[in-house]
Every structure is written in structure tokens, then in C-alpha cells.
Amino acid sequence: MMSRMDALKVLYKYTEDIPVISSCGNTSREWASLGRRDNHLYMVDTMGLTPSVAIGVSLTLEKKGIKKCIGIEGDGGILMNPNSLASAGYLNPKKWMIIVFDNECFASTGGQCSLASKIDISKVAAGFNLEVLQADEVDEFENAVKKALETEGPIVIHAKISQENHPNPFINDDPAVLAYKFSEFLKR
Amino acid sequence: MVERGKTMSSFRDLACTEIIKGIEEAKPDYLLTLPCSTIGPVIEHFENSTEVRSFPISREEDGVGIAAGISLGGEMPIMLIQDTGIGNSILAITTFAQAYHVPMLILVTRRGGFGEINSAVNLFSEPLPQILDDANVKTFKLDYRVPLKEWSTAISHAAKYAKDTHRPIIVMFNIKGGADQ
To answer: Of A17, A65, A159, B18, which is least surrounded by CB within 10 A?
Structure first.
């Protein structure tokens, strides 16, 4: 089974000019460890909000040449804010792409069991009329990323990952600076 | 003086007209709404607008996230909700919109107080101004003490103030009339 880091390394290759918003905790820390870029927005708190923020950004991209806005969320986060799936199903933001890393636990707080161990997030997203690609291995994930980036319409990649974490320093930057860099990238 | 055959407009009707005017003067790109019975005419007005893209949200926290994304993308969002919705979204307002310096205007209709028939909502609506003050979320309040003709100016200025000060700004209005809570 792939780790989050295996998948993030793949994503990093394909997103040099694509805005990516990463959820708080290990996801943002591992993502930043691959190399910081101005097209990244690292969430330092507000668990579950990433898919919603990505909806808003993706709406503003409709008149721009950028292909997608990608949000990276965990299973715990997506089940904390399934409202974002409802909004995406309703608004149909063509440039919205979400990757749900599903390890069936709250890895950032010590691996406590999450609701995803008994709930199929693919079916939840499909129930909100969203297209879903499933990927459990690295090559499947790479194909899903390539396909999703070329898909015109909101899309969810549901990736099952291991519970492995790669220790990395906390992101303790001034959030205003993180947002400023990201906004400036979007103005290009 | 009311013309014969015409009924006098209620405080609510006049307030809604001023709120519509204020939103139009603010020239937002998007209006995100979660209905309140008192504010229906405003939502219906913008559903038919060609200037402002208006859409419903399912929960205010999700709305703050979407509005923040719009704002980060360089466009201006206004969100119109009931004051109870602040309870659903205060973490997103503080730890995302406020922390990341993301401008947005949040228009909030007051619940509770005179004229309220709900037997529970007062327990949140009454302490809410204090909650927002304690959380350092800048809030302007419009009620019967502010002349209605000033409301549209307050709303459009608040939108500019949000942009100029790089943060969420709340404008709360009591359109039921009557005394402050």
C-alpha cells in the first residue's frame, strides 16, 4: 500500500504551475518537505476547510488559463465537512479537484480510528454527483492525477494510503505571508 | 402620508431595499446565501442579478471557506446569513479568514430579541455580539437607531473596509425593528 509521501511525490511532479491547497497536520508538512512553491497554500489549522477553499479558488479560475485548483484533504477532514462535497455537486466548479488521502485514521493526532473505516468515501462523493477516481497504488494514483488534470469538471481522487507518517518540522509561518504568496501566484 | 389604496411599507421592507442597495454599491463578484425568513426579498433580488453571481450554501463554515477561496483568487465575496450561522463558522472566520488576512464581508441578520418566537435561539443570539468582540472579529451593528438611509452606505463601506484592512468584516442588522437585545 502506498504511503502519503509516495503519492505526494507523484503529485509534486505534475503541479509546478497548478494551485494546490493542503490540509493541516502531516499532509501540509510532508507536502512542504518536497519543496515549497508559491502555488502552494498550506493550511495550518481549520481542519476540513480545504475542499471549500478550493471551490472558491476554482470559481475564480474559470476566466484564467490555469487548469485546476487542487485541494488535498484526509478522510477525517472530508467527513468533518461533507458540506463541501454538497457545494461542489451543486456548483459544478469545472476546475475543482480534490484528493482524499484515506488511511482510515486521524494520523496527525496519533492514528486514532476515523469513521472512514466503515464509510466508503467514494460512494459518499458519488452520491453528491461527483466523478470519482480510485487509486490504491502509486501507478494508479499517477494515472488518476494525469486524468483528473485533463478532466473538465469537478473531480475527486479517493486514494487509500498506509498510516505511515514522515516526521517533518511544523509549518509555523505567519499565515498572512502564506496567503499573500498564494494570491500573488493566482494573479499571474 | 400614505396614498389611499396603498399600504405603508414595513420596517423590514424598507430595510431590505437598503440592504439590496448597499450590496449593489459594494459591487461584489459573488453573493453566498443561507436564507432567513426576514431577508427573503434580498436573496430573491440577487438570484435574478446579472451583475452578481449568487448561490446558496449548505452550511456557513463551508461558505466561509468558499468565500475565502474567491477572495484569494482576487474577487470579492459577500456572504448573507443568520446570526446563528456564526456559531457554525467562527473557527473558519478566526483561524482561516482572519489568520490568513482574507477579506470578505459577512452580512448577518439578527435572531432573538423582541419579535422572536423561537424558544432556544436567544441563547446564542443574545451573547453573540460579546462572542464576536472577544474573538476580535470586527462587527458593525445596524438597528432602529441608525437611520435606514445610512444602511446602504454602511454596507458598501464595510466591504471596502474589509479589503482595505485585509480581514473579514461583519455587518449585523436587526430588521425586525424594536429595541436592541
So the answer is: A65
Contacts of B55 in chain A (CB under 8 A): 90-91
What is the spatial distance between Cα A80 and Cα B88, in angstroms, rounded to a whole number? 12
CATH code for the domain in which residue A106 is found:
3.40.50.970
The total number of structural domains in chain A stands at: 1
Query: Which of B66, B71, B100 is the closest to A55 by Cβ?
Result: B66
What is the model's pTM? 0.96
Is the pLDDT confidence value at B181 over 80? Answer: no
- Confidence grade of residue B169 (pLDDT, cut at 50, 70, 90): very high
On whether the CB atoms of residues A86 and A128 are closer than 8 A, the answer is yes
CA distance B48 to A48: 32
Q: Which residues contact B139 (CB under 8 A, 6 or more apart)?
A: B129, B132, B133, B169, B170, B171, B172
pLDDT surpasses 60 at B170: yes
* E strands present in B86-167: 104-109, 139-142
A46 interaction partners in chain B (CB closer than 8 Å): 65, 91-92, 95-96
The parent domain of residue A142 ranges over 4-187
Task: Using a CB–CB cutoff of 8 Å, tell me whether B78 touches chain A.
Answer: no
Given a contact cutoff of 8 angstroms between Cβ atoms, the answer to whether B102 and A186 are in contact is: no
What's the pLDDT score for residue B1? 47
**How do residues A125-137 score in pLDDT, each as one tens digit?**
999 999 999 999 9
Asked if B101 has any chain A CB less than 8 Å from its own CB, the reply is: yes
Residues of A with CB under 8 A from a CB of B: 41, 43-46, 48-61, 69, 81, 83-84, 86-87, 90-91, 175-176, 178-180, 182-183, 186-187
Report the half-sphere exposure of A76 (CA within 13 A, side-chain side): 20
pLDDT for the residue A110: 81
